[in-house]
Amino acid sequence: MLESESQITPSLDKRFRGYFPVIIDVETAGFNAKTDALLELAAVTVKMDEKGILHPDKTFHYHITPFEGANLEQAALEFNGIDPDCALRGAIDEAEALKDLCKQIRKAQKEADCQRSVIVAHNAAFDQGFVNAAIERSNIKRTPFHPFVSFDTTSLAGLTLGQTVLIKACEAAKIEFDQREAHSALYDTRKTAELFCYMVNRWQELGGWPLP
């Protein structure tokens, strides 16, 4: 006899068609992923409990040295407050950071029985563009990330909360957000992860998943 739907334990590999969501945020020295430096990268994975509720899980964070010949826009540095030459950043080579991230994500993806990782980000095209460019520069052939599929929390928040700015969406979801901490890749990634989980869980609570 087949188990009834209520007896089947929810699993992350079933939720997003085999995709493993990885919430990412980057801080950069401009808007052009091909020419402007990637300065900071953070990623948060998610896990699903026995009730199908999504939670933030592991965090990975890297301060990154500008790649050779990278463009540094002064306006961007003033906006995010990053001094690329500050030794206290503990920055590492871009290739070292991306290789470690890919290794960690492949491991987490395998543990979740998922087939491919998908980048989740606020205005995802921007972050995905910089991650893809850095992976290409680092000559990484075995990347866990899908090259063009992404989940954009801007669009999801616009649909579910009526807000598109990260801090406004978090406020609508009653997620604490400290404006003074914004524009740090680590802080923004953690808040985006909380927001993503909230929206996915709320959709389930309202009966939107699993489909009847």
List the helices and strands and how they pair.
Blueprint: H1 12-15, E1 19-28, E2 38-48, E3 54-63, H2 74-80, H3 94-111, E4 116-121, H4 124-137, E5 145-152, H5 153-160, H6 166-172, H7 185-205
Parallel strand pairs: 1-4, 4-5
Antiparallel strand pairs: 1-2, 2-3
Helix pairs in contact: 3-4, 5-7
Give your account of this protein's structure.
The chain contains seven helices and five strands, in the order αβββααβαβααα. The chain has a five-stranded mixed β-sheet, sandwiched between helices. It has 212 residues and is of the alpha/beta class. The two termini are 20 Å apart.
Structural class: alpha/beta
Helix content: 25-40%
What is the radius of gyration computed over CA atoms, rounded to a whole number of angstroms? 18 Å
Oligomer: single chain
CA distance, first residue to last residue:
20 Å
Order of helices and strands: HEEEHHEHEHHH
Number of E-state strands:
5
Poorly predicted ranges: 1-6
Sheet-strand content, in percent, reads 15-25%
Shape: globular
- In DSSP terms (H or I, runs of 4 or more residues), the helix count works out at 7
What is the arithmetic mean of pLDDT?
A: 94
Strand order within the widest beta sheet: 3-2-1-4-5
Largest sheet properties: 5 strands, mixed
